[in-house]
Amino acid sequence: MSALRVIPLTSFRRHPTGSPDALLLESGVQVRCRLGRCRPIGFDGARSCVMSLFLDGMRMPADYLSTVRLDELAGVEVYKHALDVPPEFWSGSRSACGAVVMWTRY
Q1: pTM of structure
Q2: pLDDT at 36 (0 to 100)
């Protein structure tokens, strides 16, 4: 089973607007929202934790997920486990939960 989950273009067409939450759920990542701010949730063994979030290669706060629109994205990469996260997306202990890497069209 591949460590990287690339979300296919057909998924973007099914969810043409809104935030990436639906795409992440489709890839098996939990999304937890509180007060209108959503975060990608991973698991590092037996407990849940907040995954790292990157937009165009730059680290972003995890709740920045709520501000990204699907129609602005060219692609999304999901790394569910710490060992699968490429070195350029390591960000300290947060990488232990995996990472969501989003790329814009612009």
Answers
A1: 0.76
A2: 78
